[in-house]
TrEMBL record:
Recorded GO MF terms: coenzyme A diphosphatase activity; metal ion binding
Keywords in alphabetical order: Hydrolase, Magnesium, Manganese, Metal-binding
The protein's name in its UniProt record: Nudix hydrolase domain-containing protein
Pfam families listed in its UniProt record: NUDIX
InterPro entries (alphabetical): CoAse, NUDIX_hydrolase-like_dom_sf, NUDIX_hydrolase_dom
Amino acid sequence: MRRHLTFLQRARFSTFHFNQTKSNLNPNPTTLQVPKMAPLNAASEAAIARLRNYVPPPTQYDMLPLSRRAAVLILLFADAKGDLKVVVTMRAKTLSSYAGDAALPGGRADFPTETAFQTARREASEEIGLADINQKLPPPFRVEHLCEMPTNLAKTELVVRPCVALLHGYDPQTGLSADPEESLIPILDAREVAAVFTAPLEGFLKSRLDGREDWYRVHQFFVHQNDQIYRIFGMTARIIVDAARVAYAREPEFEHNSHFGDEEMIAKLRRMGRLSAVRKASDELTRETMQKAAKLS
């Protein structure tokens, strides 16, 4: 992602594109000269290793009707210092739900046999132009799937499976190295995405936030980038916090839910007859419903 918010606004492109300028494009693709990517630093290497080794608990995701399933992509990459950053989008203000909010690339499952990673990659392809799971990025870039996180529950009674991936900018076979922030330009679907920005993953464990409690614990993070201020809150913030907890093997500096995701609550809501195949526009979890479900043994 480039630091300047001059993203190409086109509908449904399927791949990232190099910023092909005279300064970084060589006619010979085997000697493509682009800004070099710093290797992962020691802390980031350890964080990625923990995510690779993470095994989530049994999930309710595959037991749910197709109409209730969604997945998001937590796409990580190393910045110039080797620190991990996460890609976040701003939803278009014209959308019917969560308009103008910060979100991870993702969306609803398309067919019953589609895996969470397939859903997340397909939606990321549609929204920001990242190559989908069946396509390749231009060298030296590649996407490594690291792990899935416990499923989360949206207020709209949609269940969301976070999928963590690492965008590599180094090809050991060719020796090519590139910085994603300098060399890749997201191709946005302007109908769904207004902007793309990045945030330091470890920052989601630090106390630079305002928070409040409701039936659902809410955290807010404010990311300053290119004279813009982006607010990350709600379920999106919670998902990234959980990924950071696994990656850095420590708890946040602020009060938070001790459990990961909402697998137990999802199971209880299913027992109550919620989360059925028929979704209604009026579906929204209330405090009373959550309290009733929580009392189930």
